Amino acid sequence: MSNRTWFVTFATGILLLALLPNVVDGYMLGVMRDALIFGLFAASLDFFWGRTGILCFGHACFFGLGGYVMAIVSMMPDLAQQTLFGLVAAVAASALLAAVIGYFMFFGGVRGSYFTIVTLALAVIAQQVAVSWSDVTGGDTGLLGVPPLAFGALDLSGDIASYAAVAVILVVCLLGLRLVSVGPWGKVLTAIGDNEMRAAALGYNAAQRLTLTFTLSAAIAGLAGALYVAMAGLVAPDLIGLLLSTEVVVWVAIGGRGTLIGPVVGAVLVQRAQQEISSYNPSLWPLIIGCIFVLIVFLLPDGILSIAQRLRGVLPGRTR
Amino acid sequence: MLTVSGLKSGYGALPVLHGVDLAISAGEVVGLLGRNGAGKTTLLRTLGGALVAQAGTIRIDGRDVSRSRTYMRARAGIAHVPQGRGIFGRLTVEENLEVGTRAAGKIDVKRLLDEAYAHFPILRDRRRQMAGTFSGGQQQMLAIARALCGQPKALLLDEPSEGIQPNIVQEIGELVPRLARERGIAVLLVEQNLDLALHASGRCIVMDKGLIVHAAETSAFRNEELLAQFLAL
Description:
The complex is a heterodimer of chains A (320) and B (233).
Chain A: H1 3-23, H2 26-52, H3 60-74, H4 82-107, H5 112-132, H6 134-137, E1 143-144, E2 150-151, E3 154-155, H7 159-182, H8 184-194, H9 196-201, H10 206-232, E4 234-235, H11 242-255, H12 261-280, H13 284-299, H14 306-314
Antiparallel strand pairs in A: 1-4, 2-3
Helix pairs in contact in A: 1-7, 2-7, 2-10, 2-11, 2-12, 3-4, 3-10, 4-10, 7-8, 11-12
Chain B: E1 2-11, E2 14-24, E3 29-34, H1 40-48, E4 55-60, E5 63-64, H2 70-76, E6 78-81, H3 93-99, H4 109-119, H5 121-125, H6 136-149, E7 154-158, H7 166-183, E8 186-190, H8 194-200, E9 203-208, E10 211-217, H9 224-231
Parallel strand pairs in B: 3-8, 3-9, 6-7, 7-8
Antiparallel strand pairs in B: 1-2, 1-4, 4-5, 9-10
């Protein structure tokens, strides 16, 4: 996606986000807010997967860890600035976990489908730990009563305030990730994704770059997890497991890998569709999302954001 | 500039190089000849760091890089242009060159790019084009230009004529010795195209079964008997 197209899409997205509170009620605003948080989570996966071509199939580990750490820290009774410390701790914990995993995997030469399989196993382990370590995590029930976002006197628990906070964080993160993606760092990542051996032969410490990128990606996933938990008021094992790890891969693939905005759109659309369809018939949803995924992979491998580009190509009078 | 002694290497338990000794001075182009399977590409891959040396030393400008990782060898001054070129297809021509400047350290990227464009004007004309859409010959030029952007001390070229139209092969044959001379680069040129190898190199060495079996000035290789003996031509 060219820079111009990306920024036009981005600006349109900001406009839609700004207009949304005027056209929907408080409940729907809350639904959209949660969908946007998952959109941020999807963008974090896309930042790594889209640039390097290496798929992490356990990204919910970092989302869930951020959520659990946020819940534990912000529920400490005598802590001032619970939200701030909770967010910082959540981001740091997810980043640290990714740095450790990334270090051993990337410096150990684990790549491609092997990385995917190992991270898939990590998601299973993480969920098992979340269920079994009930003294800390609350077991199957999880932790209830997580306080909403508040920075001193600034209370962000209202519908519009929490929506606005999430929207601003999403916009800032997307912009930051885009700038990194198209800057020198992103070009080197693309080069590593294309041919890692060649990138190393040009003087790049590929393992170090992959580890740092994976860490940044996980930090943002942790931030998304922390935000979600603060908004929902609870954290449970389904936020750290394999199912969510799979869903986020589907959101990115449907939205358009490597675009950052596409995964946000994918996450929002899929979740809205899931809620609508499940309200009619809960058992129908897995079938439908499976079919959509297969269709997208075959018909729109670059995701739904590529529809506009394809249309431009076939419209009469347009050269591209 | 590039000195190799007693180099042994291979693929897992399969030894390929059995003790290679080699020295190339700054500004010199050495042609590396040999039949298929002689170990030419393995030697280049071992020098570049893609394969681990099992024994022996590799020195670049006096610095021992035998145990260094690939990226450290690149920063030390070894540039390897492999068979198949290895250009980054998802980046533009200019981005490929920018990425290639890392080994040169923190210096003026624009100047390096301008120098590369001076040698390969077609790359300047197509600098915004995605490198993956280039033809084989253009990709080879880009791969050499990208290697030059790292300001290497030693340039390892693995069959640059492979799958390339004759006029570009000729262009490369004239460019390589000029680059070596002007920039003081030690060039090791692996080539099956004997005309190119003899045209570009000042000295040639022949490998067979993982060893260097003959070395002589290029003029000596214009002898049919010698070619028949070492290359079965």
